[in-house]
Design brief:
Number of strands: 16
Strand content: 15-25%
Helix content: 40-55%
Radius of gyration: 38 Å
CATH architecture of the largest domain: Alpha-Beta Barrel
Number of helices: 19
Number of domains: 3
Distance between the termini: 65 Å
Structural class: alpha/beta
Bound molecules: guanosine-5'-monophosphate, manganese (II) ion
Length: 565
């Protein structure tokens, strides 16, 4: 923040010395006028200097006081003419005194008003008006003053962020002052029920920031448990009791190392994450993971450039028809080779991108590359490859997503049946109603749709039957331990039966061993994908692989299977 000149502080600091100087000046003016020998002339006007000074430093009252004092000093005791000893008329000095006081008052009033507004602006810059709480700027300043704690101490400073997840809903239905009132009520409860060394601030319209300095883990646990209880209560707004979905995120630190401004960002991020995952969250900031927020945001910032600079590429993992061992398609998986950070694993940037507005560009890139590759293979004699691309439900939030996909098919001259879109189970089911129509538009164009990571979320069987989904991809977690793990076997078997009953096919992901492959073959799993057949490889490597095995990657004969390569 830019520090501006603060009249109020300056006044307070200088008041003692100013008082001395002013009185001295009054005396000097008296002496000066007396020495000049006559009050008739202009010299008496010099008295305005101490009057104005006093008004600036002490306000209207100071101005009037020195006005009167100055008037009296130059008043009855000061002769009109020191040589002749002629005295002043009373009206003369009384009028002058009144005038001095008036000027003192006017200047003092102006000075007081300025100070009042400076104080107000200063307060507003550091506080939230509706709740009167310190704002994020002041909170950040307070954080910067937290003392360092030893690394091995069991105490930390805790920065808690607390957000209302359904704030938009509340604001739309009850107006924005509902949020102000709820937060004020919450602050009241926190002050009553939690330790009183907490410093509470408002960091966004829907969230509070709380500083709990120097606390050990046990006390902090108790505090978060109490906070959880408090957050479950309904909050009063006018005569109503409103339910707020509130989540908190907590940042623990031993010492303040970051540049100012970054802690509020960290708190906001943990709150957002807590809201998104619908669970309270605690993270620890030590020296080693200090840069995580910044790095994440920076990565996102670089992603657009990375797409243009060709740092992103697609790798392809073959999918194999279980019974014959023939390659029927590939899953396109994104890889980022960063010029300084090296290979960045997809889990480091994809989930963040999927939640950001960059998701449409990322998916556009993936589909564009995959279709270009498909067309190229088709031309080079590797025909009938269905390329699947992972998409996010957030893609559907862009209203032109389906049109864009259809245009891309058209642009590359690829038939819709050679493009498969994989959507994770959890995300698909969460927002199904909104996206159903779009799924049908895609499937009407011949595009294959599949549910990814099946078994990790909760699918509605009703939707599963109704949706134009062709494939169910069983999550790796259930495949990796086949055939040893009985539970996995039950789940896989049940899923396959159910999918077949619904007229859908099953893909097993994460097939790493011959034993798993054999098991899947005997349970009528339709397609397998995994390291046993091949890891994800570059387009060129895939071409070589395909040609070497003539499209048959595994030996499909029942009971005698073996990798052909
Ligand atoms: O190889 P693997 O580490 O590639 O992939 C990790 C995760 O990233 C998987 O869950 C996969 O679905 C996802 N992923 C890989 N490539 C893409 C992509 O192009 N788009 C999207 N949305 N997700 C991808
Ligand atoms: O979520 P999705 O199914 O899109 O993710 C595919 C992920 O699984 C990719 O990260 C890919 O590299 C990885 N993968 C592919 N085959 C295997 C395998 O056989 N074993 C393991 N552990 N991972 C695999
Ligand atoms: Mn996938």
């Amino acid at each position: 923040m830019i520090e501006t000149f603060d009249l109020d502080e300056w006044r307070k600091k200088k008041q003692y010395s100013a008082a001395g100087v002013i009185l001295l000046m009054v005396a000097i003016v008296y002496w000066f006028v007396y020495e000049r020998g006559e009050i008739k002339y202009v010299f008496s006007h010099t008295m305005y200097v101490p009057i104005v000074l006093s008004a600036i430093f002490f306000g209207a009252r100071g101005g009037i006081l020195i006005g009167i004092l100055g008037g009296l000093v130059l008043g009855p005791l000061m002769p009109m003419d020191t040589i002749t000893g002629e005295m002043q008329n009373t009206v003369n000095w009384v009028y002058r005194t009144a005038f001095f006081s008036l000027i003192g008052f006017i200047v003092g009033f102006a000075s007081d008003t300025t100070v009042f507004y400076i104080k107000k602006i200063k307060w507003l810059a550091h506080h939230d008006k509706p709740t009167g709480l310190p704002n994020s700027l002041l909170m950040e300043k307070i954080i910067q003053t937290l003392p360092d704690l030893p690394e091995d101490s069991d105490e930390s400073h805790y920065l808690i962020g607390l957000g209302i997840a359904n704030a938009v809903e509340i604001r739309m239905n009850f107006g924005s002052n509902a949020i102000d009132q709820i937060l004020s009520a919450l602050v009241g409860i926190i002050r009553n029920e939690l330790p009183d060394n907490l410093l509470i601030c408002r960091i966004h319209y829907n969230s509070l920031g709380i500083i709990q300095p120097k606390t050990n883990k046990i006390d902090m646990k108790r505090l978060t448990q109490n906070l959880e209880k408090i957050l479950k209560k309904p909050f009063a707004f006018d005569d109503l009791h409103l339910h707020c979905d509130m989540y908190f995120g907590c940042v623990a630190l031993k010492r303040v190392i970051d540049e100012p401004g970054t802690y509020i960002e960290k708190i906001s991020n943990t709150v957002s994450e807590a809201i998104q995952k619908k669970q309270h969250k605690i993270i620890f900031i030590g020296r080693e993971n200090n840069g995580w927020v910044r790095e994440n945001i920076q990565l996102l910032g670089e992603l657009k450039h990375a797409i243009e600079a060709g740092e992103l590429t697609m790798h392809y993992q073959p999918k194999v028809i279980t019974q014959t061992g023939h390659i029927c398609g590939v899953e396109a998986l994104m890889r980022w080779h960063h010029p300084t950070l090296g290979n960045i694993p997809p889990d480091r940037f994809i989930p963040r991108t999927e939640d950001s507005t960059l998701v449409d560009q990322l998916t556009y890139f993936a589909i564009d590359q995959a279709l270009r590759q498909q067309a190229k293979w088709e031309k080079n004699g590797i025909s009938g490859m269905c390329v699947s691309v992972n998409i996010s439900v957030n893609n559907f939030k862009y209203h032109d997503f389906t049109d864009t996909v259809l245009q891309l098919l058209d642009h590359h001259g690829v038939n819709g049946k050679y493009l498969e879109l994989e959507i994770t189970e959890t995300l698909l089911m969460e927002e199904i109603e909104r996206n159903i129509e779009k799924l049908f538009t895609l499937s009407d164009a011949g595009i294959i749709l599949s549910i990814d990571d099946f078994g990790t979320g909760y699918s509605s069987l009703q939707y599963l039957a109704k949706l134009p989904i062709s494939f169910i991809k069983i999550d790796q977690a259930f495949i990796l331990n086949l055939p040893a793990d009985t539970k996995s076997k039950h789940i896989v078997q049940t899923t396959i039966n159910m999918a077949h009953d619904l007229g859908k096919e099953v893909v097993a992901e994460g097939v790493e061993t011959k034993a798993a492959y054999d098991y899947l073959k005997n349970t009528d799993c339709d397609i397998v994908q995994g390291y046993y057949a091949s890891p994800p490889v570059t387009a060129g490597e895939f071409e070589n692989l395909y040609r070497q095995c003539n499209g048959q990657l595994l030996n499909g004969a029942r009971g005698t299977s073996q990798r052909i390569q």
